[in-house]
Amino acid sequence: MRILASDGMDKSAIAALKEMGHEVVEQFYEPEELAEQVKQYDILVVRSATKVRKPIIDAAKETGKLKLIIRGGVGVDNIDVAYAEENGIHVRNTPRASSNTVAELALAHMLSVARFISIAGHTMREDKWEKKAYKGIELAGRTLGVIGYGRIGQALGAKAQALGMKVLAYDIFKAEGLENENMKYVEMDELLANSDFISVHTPSIDGKPLINADTIAKMKDGAIVINTSRGNNVDEDALLAALESGKLRGAGLDVFAEEPAKNHALYSHPHVSCTPHIGAQTAEAQKRVGAEIVDIIKNFA
């Protein structure tokens, strides 16, 4: 089969697929060109940069060659899944591969905001020594609210408990066997009112932000918001206003409403720890993603 990896793929996965007799092409295309190129491939593998919307699927239908779209990652909101499936194109993802990786980054942002690691390091590069300016807080004894307690949320919850934190989780689906004296499921308003840190781990829901002016108003004064899920899960204007007013202590952001990020006022704010959408960017995660992709293709073929 001919496989287009439009956002790249781990070298070990490419080698494995070639050994299986498949042709793998690594090439990113803008939407209009992708619509033409996709007609020539049996499988399309994407990450977050490539958006597979109806026009791409309609173009693929012209030849009927494309049979499988794989999202190398957890969320599939960059793919019109239902439309693809309706037109005989299967959609798969790799939900297990990067869960721990994203959870570790969320925790890193929690620590970074709590101890001013980002801004303090930046000021040292300006030859400043502002030791007394950065009085932080400890994670131990604090409460972490996790919105979306799936694989990533659960991984973060476990790490937080190991650091002595209590965890409140909100999710439509409540997995059994996870609750204990330091972790319990609650309704959203209870989570917002009682959490020192709030970390978002849900897919984008109709493009509407989960963290907005209303939900921020329900949070504790001095709470910290972490987002490693999807940029449009957070209303950036409301978040910035809350940071400037002091309602929120800080924020840790790996994702933005527009990427590459253009909201300079937000990502340059001294109480914001930011990264350029690197949630799954570890050597270990990319190998696991690649291995899952290989397994999907092997079973599909």
Structure, explained:
- This protein has 12 helices and 12 strands.
- The protein has 301 residues and is of the alpha/beta class.
- Helix 9 links the parallel strand 9 and strand 10.
- It is elongated, with a radius of gyration of 21 Å.
Which helices and strands appear, and what pairs or packs with what?
Layout: E1 2-5, H1 11-19, E2 23-26, H2 31-37, E3 43-46, H3 54-61, E4 68-71, H4 81-86, E5 90-93, H5 99-115, H6 117-125, E6 143-147, H7 151-162, E7 166-170, E8 183-185, H8 188-194, E9 197-200, H9 213-217, E10 223-227, H10 236-245, E11 248-253, H11 264-267, E12 272-274, H12 283-300
Parallel strand pairs: 1-2, 1-3, 3-4, 4-5, 6-7, 6-9, 7-8, 9-10, 10-11, 11-12
Helix pairs in contact: 1-12, 2-3, 5-7
Considering the chains and any ligands shown, give keywords for the structure.
single chain; 301 residues; alpha/beta; five-stranded parallel beta sheet; 37% helix; elongated
Outline the low-pLDDT stretches: none
Enumerate the strands of the largest sheet in spatial order, edge to edge or round the barrel.
8-7-6-9-10-11-12
User: What is the residue-mean pLDDT, rounded to a whole number?
Assistant: 96
Helix content: 25-40%
β-strand amount: 15-25%
In short:
By secondary structure, the protein is of the alpha/beta class.
